[in-house]
Amino acid sequence: MKPLLDQLAGFVLGDVRADQVVPPTGITARLTLFSAAVMAFVAVCALSLALAAGRLADRWENELARTATLRISAPSAQMAAQTKAALRVLETTTGVAEARALSDAEQAALLAPWFGPDLPVDQLPIPRLIEIVETDEGMDGEGLRLRLAAEVPGAVLDDHNRWRTPLVLAAERFRLLGLVVLLLIGAAMAAMITLAANASLAANAQVISVLRLVGARDSFIAGAFVRRFTLRALFGAAFGVALGCGAILLLPRAQVEGGFLTGLGFQGWHWLLPLVIVPLAAAVAYAATRAAAQITLRNMP
Amino acid sequence: MIELENVAYGYDGGEVFADVSLALNAGSFHFLTGPSGSGKSTLLKLCYGVLVPTAGQLRLFGKDRRGMARDDIALARRRIGVVHQDCQFLDHLSVSDNIALPLMVSGRDLLAEDANLSELVGWVGLRDRAKALPPELSGGERQRAALARALILSPEVVLADEPTGNVDWEMSQRLMRLLIELNRMGKTILIATHDLALIRAAKAHVQARVLRIAGRRLHLAGADL
User: What's the pTM value of the predicted model, to 2 decimals?
Assistant: First the structure.
């Protein structure tokens, strides 16, 4: 472990003499820094979006997966009897943890957003709703439907699957899209660093020729370029991540009323994840510059 | 040290020279002459491993050039000091740093080598110009700086390609005296030059073999020198 740390420290602190042999290249340095910062900023946004989509998928998956609603439509004279019968069926159904008929007040509260608070629920032919909470093992929805059809003809079971499944699928796809965007950002960064490194190597062909003349190994020559580009990507990415996190902080806080759009930021330990972008950017730059330098040096006499 | 056996070199279908045999033994002094374009520089490039012969065998310090890895060639170049006519410096580094460049690339401790560097800079007469940048030097100063750089690792062989091409007669004599002094210290010297007057003047002070490339072959030069 210690040799690795020493090696890492040596790489970061660098060999001043080795760094001196490659002349400073102003515009390439600034462009690499800028590109790394922009890529890191976009990566923070994509990461935030992917995590928010993931949270949404999990919420829809977990909160709605273990609940179902039984709706009983019957003439008012039979409503109480059918509700009792349905509750009896549910009590003996494997996988049902709890079943409870909603009171008139609770049903009125559900309808209030559409019909106002003064709705006379008891005078209207409104179906009775039974809230079902399933056990962890879950219930056999199809079996329950068949039993209800025989014993409570006015009952309709809604296990939320019909609208929950496409929503969860959409949220998961969104999360996947975010991760693909992150990968593409990494690939684009590698391509950009490779181009910049190639340009720098070509511009310094004379320097490389002199270094070769005096007995420099390829690893020494490549090292001077690799360290330079890796540190530029590291500092650029650190700046971009700081900027990205600042922008995410400015987004509205997560609220139930705002739904998905107010939950785009990082939550809890997820705030640590953008920090991973910085060493990842440096690793991408290291690998891209090393590969570019090795190929270029191999093709030089 | 460096041996060529029936070596040929050519490119783009043309042959620069063929059937060249030469042994640069320890402590020997060779001049290589011939008209412009005869292949003097090419032969020198073969000798320090930049080029690979198209035929024949080239051995650098006992190793076949064709079988040498890139790192092996780099290590061999540390045993060969090369002086070019156009010198080739890193223009953003001072003269002193340019001379120390072989120390840097070979991972030597610069502080430990400081006295050696200072002595060498003084020996080539550039003590006052040590902090100058290469573009600020005259032709003669550049050649002396290149010679110092070629010698900083104390190589066994010194190859010089037209080292006096850009300097006046007095400076070329001064450079030649430095090279002869090196040979007396035991270094193997090969100088490519078309300046016959320089060769004649040098032969008065050193036992040297004069080789000439003509008609794509290497000959031992005769009494005309």
Answer: 0.72
